[in-house]
Amino acid sequence: MADCNPVMADYGTSGAVNTSTYAIGGAVGERENVTAANCIRDPDQPATRSFCQHEDAFQSNTCLGCIPRGDWSNAKVSTDMTLVSLSNQIFAPTMSVFTQNIMYKVHPKVHANLNGAMATMASPADPVFFFHHSMIDALWTIYYKCQAQGARSTDPRVFPPSDWNLFNRRVCGPYSFIPKTTSIRFSVSRSTMSMLYHNGTTGAATFDVGDPRSPLAPFFESTPTSYLAYSQYPPSSGISYDFAGTGLDVLLSECSSWLTSPSASPPPTAEPASFLESRGKSKRRPKAVSKQIHASQRMYTHTRKYVRNERKAREYVEMMMCVHRNECLGGVFDYSDSFKRSFKLHLSPYCYDVLEDLARGRRSIPVPGWAKVLMDTFGCDIHRSTGHETSKKRRL
Fold first, then answer.
1. Taking the domains of the chain in order of start, what are their residue ranges?
2. Given 27, 258, 265, 365, which is the most exposed site by the fewest CB atoms within 10 A?
């Protein structure tokens, strides 16, 4: 991941590996023990020198002054982060399904693969957290533009039904919301919404960020207080996203038709793999992005010869990518027990479950010749595992 995204290098990457364990967050007895490859203090990046592991350390002036991080040089780009998977996650029939897709797949996978503080509820202490969540917000923007634009406020594509909160409690853990606030944001409904500060260790919601007494209030003052105004596309606030060169621009412009659109897959260029390097120099996509789009279209075209149902065909292509990840790119692993505890997850990564089902005969990929097309398209380059997840690699 660090090789693909120069932003991570700009924020200190993860340096030399020097494994240590740190107690982070919460009160005494409630802190998380985080095993990190290194604790980063980048002389060129002040944000890395401002980390404090918990309030007691802040009050006693004993902050670490460095950010515990995993070995980002070996943090893999997982299948959940590919355009094929993101497409399946975004182009969902309802807001509830979209939310579940993101919560089950790309969101926790990035946290887990980066490891260190990012693999805990202390992750907002790392500035890279905000890049990750800006990306999640960008996916939400694509969903609204492609799936819910123009829909009525009562449409399940716009506002989730009553089971949405039940889902969030089940996946994210039971939280008690007992805020003390004068903000109009606190009522959660179709007309108003609240954004609450959370203690990630205890689950307590202590104040609303929109409360005038909140130190974060100036940052949020330009955002609408109405859920519907906040969610509408085009955005009503001054916040927008630049999708250029990331591959997400194809999903935004072509929506679910990107897998069959000739305009989505121009010939690969000699542009650098870094989209940040290429921006401002050319409107052409980086070679790596164009190659992924072209390869995904090729896999989908082959699959559709044998599968009539469009949604099933897209799912099979993602399953193929899971197999490729397992056999050629270092393996597919379950989340570690510590990560599941921290994020209150009671599930495994999508690809881990897919490979389990394939191995046990519960699922299949009914597409003749798919393995050959996959290998001809992506090749097979064996990589060692990295230890960011548990060592329980799926075997077929």
1. 1-17+71-127+243-396, 150-232
2. 27
